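USER: Fancy drafting a protein?

ASSISTANT:
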Amino acid sequence: MSLAFQSRVTQIALGLLVVILLVHFVIYLAFAAELIPFPFDYDQGEGHELYNAVLFSEGKCPYCTYEDYPYYSSNYPPVFHLIMMPLVAILGPQYWIGRTIIFISTLITGGSIAWAIFRKWHLGTVAAIAALSFFASNFIYHLGPLLRQHLLMVMFETLAVVILANAFDRTKPLRRRHLLIGFTLLLLAGYTKQLAYSTCIAVGLWALLRNPRIAIVYSLGLIAAAIGIFAVAEISTNGYWSLNLIAANRNPFIPEQYSGLLRQFVMLHWPLLILSVVSILYELFFDRLSLFSVWFVVSFASTIASGTWGAGDSYFATTIVSACILSGNTLALLVTKRGSLVPRLKPVGNLGLVAVVALLFVYSLRVIKLPTSGPIFGPIAAALGVEPAPGHRYPLYDAAGWTVGYAVTGHFPSAEDYANGWYIVERIEESGLPAMTEDPGFMMRAGQDVVTNATQLNNLYVNGLYDPVQLVADIEAHRFGVIVLRARFYPQPVLDAIDSAYMLDEIVPMNGFNYELWVPKA
């Protein structure tokens, strides 16, 4: 078999792989287009992220008012909310603002993956495969367009790692610039979400291997900057900063949740994991250990945090990025090097390339997902005979199945979801009193202040940091015209007060959840 024929076959196979991965990307784009305009909470917590931006735009503190009315506080750092703030100040609390920012951040992450491959290998097709593999992941698909800060953190992490990966190969002025930009991006990642600590550790360990002096200098600089910002925030909030971001985040570890998510992650991504290990082994024996390899190992180890209450599959996103880059490196290595092997090893190189391409095809078929509603995907799903899994309450086929902590998102909001969301807003407006809802979008749409952040109040309560006696008194005094429950995440005394002083008036379905409308008892 001639080398030209082998190259042609390789090009065809890689082209087919790109086509399949592009289909995944189109589905991702379609989900984003359907979700971004939806004016209510689609996933639990979206509205609280948005309301934090509202508070910042009004010069208020989102960490300081949980003890008194309106009983609100947040447990996330402020970078995402500050990025949203200018547009929120001008346009009001629009969900599309935050969702668009996060969606764009995923595109930047994908572009960074592609650049990391192309910069080293100058292979456009391989770079595209690595980037598209990121968007193909079920985990990324249903998280990408959400108004949640996690994938913005991943964007900052990825940019930092890609910039730092070849910093020590640059001339001294460029090296300093890359190091300064990279470590600044790590600081932004950490103040977007605390989980960026794993990438900071990975960068520090790798830098120690390359240049201990520079590693220590820049790591100490990063630590000093982080401590300085923390101190300013702690003083300006009278201690509420650490209370909400650290003390209240001590949630219990649930082994079954972690094992279920890990099993699901491996089931979907095992081809990428194999290719990543191959890349690491090659570097260990024949090359220099790259930052991407250290990043993969450390980030994979840190996914154990996904087993804490309130965590989930988003905690694997950083590992997915690193796996896509390492898989691209493995593919590029075989594409470029197999022709230069000695004759007796060329069959091994050819077989290796076939195996790598086959694994990527397997991956592209493991991560199948398809919305089963809408004017385009509804007929396509019907023609293909694709339906949601038995017992799945959303119009979406997802090969991942479900486990505790896996985000049940990815379906398209329906006309009924829009109508029922506005109906709940009408009920709030008709009551003539403040409302208290688990999802804050209804209160914002009704022009009211957001009252409570259920999960954060519960975090504070279970850690002995919050006594809900005043909120309970307001409930017993019928201060709220309507209370809207979705998942009953409030502290138990609050739920007991609602059950005692209010009665269930109506159940309104939206996005697969039953929203309970409770009104004061006569």
User: Anything to note?
Assistant: The mean pLDDT is 95. The chain is about 60% helix and 5% strand. The longest helix spans residues 3-35. Residues 49 and 354 are 46 Å apart (CA to CA).
